[in-house]
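name: query_chain
kind: protein
chains: 1
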Amino acid sequence: MAKAYERKHRIAVLGGGPGGYEAALAGAQLGAEVTLVERAGVGGAAVLTDVVPSKSLIATAGAVQAVRDSGRLGVQTFVPGDHGKPVRPETAVNLAAVNKRLMAMAGAQSVDMLRSMEDAGVRVVQGEGRLDGTGAVLVSTAAGGTDFDRIEADTIVVAVGSSPRELDSAKPDGERILTWKQLYDLPAIPEHLVVVGSGVTGAEFANAYRTLGAEVTLVSSREQVLPGEDPDAAAVIEREFTRLGMHVMSKSRASTVKRTETGIVVELEDGRVVEGSHCLMAVGSVPNTEGLGLESAGVALTDSGHIRVNKVARTNVPSIYAAGDCTDFFPLASVASMQGRTAIMHALGDFVRPIDLRNVAANVFTYPEIATVGWNERTLDEASDLAQHVTHTVPLSVNPRAKMIGTTDGFVKLFAWKASGTVIGGVIVSHRASELIFSLALAVEHRLTVDQVASAFAVYPSMTGAITDAARALHQH
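structure:
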């Protein structure tokens, strides 16, 4: 007797960024029929206009900084001048060439991701998608079009990302007043870049452009740059900004930004004025959820328009999930990817572990970098009802490898429960801290004790030796 035909589970994914991409791959891997709808290109803003190009620009700035700091290691980059006297040459940066490389690389990454989708059997549709409120997705392949393709779905994943927040008092024009998506059209290094906002995005770009040669003024409404980071770590970065010659204006809130004939003027709430050639507005982002039909589908949103999701990325509507910056979760590409995979695994009944944000590793790509995972000192100090914790900090100035490579500005800080010695968090401020934090992320994820971390062999000499040194200092008797 012939076996009855079993229809595949149908999945529609809106948005091809990290969350949507991973959701589509996971669905295909588990045997579902998957359609991915993306309006710009696979990879979304994270690949095309955000993470990939910005971190590539920052890597270029890091290379420039390494050349400039090479004198610490005894490397002399002199050319002969008059009478044979050595003259140190200037480090030249061709921003147009840099931007061309960044955008070409982003485009190539998008193409690679598209091929991965196609190889996995995912149907990719380019166009604008929205929910119709009946368990289907309507797709218009022309902006503002009235003709729609209808995609029936058993499960829908919304992963449409976010866009830079724009203020009416400082409207970006793409030439002088810019969002971070518009920086890659600059033909040359700005003469004087005023950065409004000292969060992660503002600090990263301020650091990069100052290193590339621009005069930079950072307007910060807070007392210290990077207010969301470990205070000791933020202090290291602010000292580095000062060393680079950046002008940091603390406790200074911008009121308006206006374009002039030759540049821009930033007016502060206290009446002061800052003039520059260009202004980068780094004042947060807004979710791309407007016009998606979420309200008519019954999906709950926050007042800011973010989609409410639980720890398995499901909304209040059982068949609809969401991932990435459009949700009220942690706005990181790595979290979006995990949300996408978790959503599909949950929808298809596979084993799934709810996402614990305390296990998420994050990084600020300044120079040096700040990497964090788990509990932070501020939260631990405020949570008086929690068991006592212990902490130990190892400055990189005592680490032999850091001395060898000339990057001693930074530290490794470790947090553990006093009673059990279980590692609950850590902060690393160092060159390539983003690579070093993984060992602490493993320790936090798997609840290792400081003794277990200390018992692992670290290469000597190495930066990771600072991690084992910190763990050893917290040995419980």
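note: The longest strand covers residues 423-430.
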